Amino acid sequence: MDQQYLLVILTVFVAVSTVALATQAAMLFGIYKSSRALEQNAQRLLPKVEALVETSRLTIEDSRKQIIDIATKTSDILDTTRRQLARVDGVLEDASDRARVQFDRAELVLDDAMTRAQETVAFVHGGIMKPLREIQGVALGLRTALQFLMRGGRSDPTEATADEEMFI
Q1: What ranges do the domains of the chain cover?
Q2: Whether the predicted model's global pTM rises above the 0.85 cut
Q3: How many degrees, rounded to 5, is the angle at CA 76 between CA 71 and CA 79?
Q4: What is the pLDDT, as a whole number, of residue 129?
């Protein structure tokens, strides 16, 4: 290859490199300007962000205190509720025990009353009704005897047969 030709190719490549470097320099300058604008915007927003962070921190601290207070009160309420439920449970257990005892007593009283009523009925039946039936039987016998004696004479054989048939 010819020296001249090599020199031209080298010059073209140097020119292309120069253009590339100039483009890169322009882009770096654009990036520099953008970063400066971004920095200025960030500088303007920085006080607002710091104020927001401080407000958030204070709010979180207040919330933490309130949450601790609420947790303490809730724990106290739960303890009180637990104690009250234990008392209610004791009262209900005592009431059910007493009711059971009263039901047992009522059953004993009812059984005793039924036994006494049965004994009274047996006594009345054996002591009053039996003698009344005996007296009634004796009275019926006396009446029949008096009727028989009042009739005078013998009875008709047909009557005797009818009386016997009645018993057969």
Answers
A1: 22-111
A2: no
A3: 125
A4: 80
